[in-house]
Amino acid sequence: MINCDIRIARSFLSDETYIRSRTRADIGLEQLKTKTGPGSEWLGWRDLLAKPNDAELQSVEEVAKDIRTNADIFIVCGIGGSYLGAKAVIDALSSHFGSKGPEIVYAGHNMSGKYLKELVEYIKAPKADGSVKSVYLNVISKSGSTLETALAFRTLRSVFNELYGEDATERIICTTSKEGGILNALIDQKGYRKFVIPGDVGGRFSVLTPVGLLPIAVAGIDIKTLFYGAVEAYNTYEDDAEDILEYAALRNALHETGKTIDVFACFEPELKSLGGWIQQLLGESEGKEGQGIFPTVASYSTDLHSLGQFIQQGQRSLMETFIIVEKPFCDLTVTEIPGDDDKLNYLAGRSFHDINTKAREGTTEAHQDGNVPIVNITIEALNEQNIGALIYFFELLTGVFVYSLGINPFNQPGVEDYKKAMYRLLGKE
Ligand code: PA5
Known about the structure:
It is built from 16 helices and ten strands. The relative contact order is 0.17. By secondary structure, it is of the alpha/beta class. The strands form two sheets. Strands 1-10-9-7-8 form a five-stranded mixed beta sheet, with helices on both faces. Strands 3-2-4-5-6 form a five-stranded parallel beta sheet, with helices on both faces. The termini are far apart. The protein folds into two domains: 3-36 and 226-411, Rossmann fold (3-Layer(aba) Sandwich); 47-221, Rossmann fold, CATH 3.40.50.10490. It binds 5-phosphoarabinonic acid. Residues 79-82, 141-143, 146, 149, 202-204, 284, 412 line the site of 5-phosphoarabinonic acid (PA5). 5-phosphoarabinonic acid binds at residues 79-82, 141-143, 146, 149, 202-204, 284, 412.
């Protein structure tokens, strides 16, 4: 399912340091399983895999089918944990160009007037035949009050009323907490369709709830296989979490020995958004109390031509995690050209996957020589089941690793600080 190979990174550590960290990881897993660590009221992301709710998966699929049949454009309106998981899975499993279903666009994830204005203009512009575009909107906010999302929703609601009149209501689907909050008041008032985010699942752990599942299903991705891929990973690691414990212990030890940055690198561009989801999952969970390894994302080989120099020879505070897909994505090969005018015939007949694999092996060799500890996380093929498993793998790793640092993984007090300051400056009472 998932292969977690820490051997290269482990060779940078003494046995004594690693064994000390391993004890901390063991305690972290125990805290998670027995719900005795700080923030244990937020462990619903484990429970929902222990007891899958097939009825909910079915109802998400039904709404998604309706949207796929009727929509030209589907807007996912949310920020942070309310959209990064969906984007990660959609980007990983969709084509780079064109789409067989509705076009998926994002809103409510920034404060840019330009972005929102251009989105409004785009959805208002008639189709080539002069008809009005069919647009559906999924507003996702657990609190129901996050400013970026709420402002985009206010703007888009008005546009929907203008374009569709009374029919606007059925085009808006809200995903929020069971009760309370401004968004729930609007749902009651207007009669929008609604999905519930379980109270004990935090935003960045919510991709396998309707938060992520509805947009993913609208993109035409098989959410049952995705979800059950995560269930399988859950069951596997409940029996034997050795891989998670080793990886958490390794990160703990590298943290202790001064590594401050973890570069999550993929070698296929469709996995970059998955890196973005991991970045938020780990970043918001571990970056507290003056601790944590700053997670950042790179897409190789593109970023080897921008970050490669630093990684090879800059300040030695980095580690790297490679996200690898073993099986070829496609069978494209290099063509042979008579005359070999660009001197590339030495590669003729070789697949791009093979060449890319050599790029990764070369990168590993060079970065290891440059004293960068590397972890390899490999899935066999890029599909729903393996992405589902990878989601749970990183959720569990996050819980265990952050507990091993003695930190509550499930709150985000620093984010609240920025919001308080912003609201004060904006004159909110
Ligand atoms: O992980 C988190 O908890 C955050 O990133 C939230 O998802 C993000 O701040 C959005 O919050 P909300 O869903 O309440 O709008």
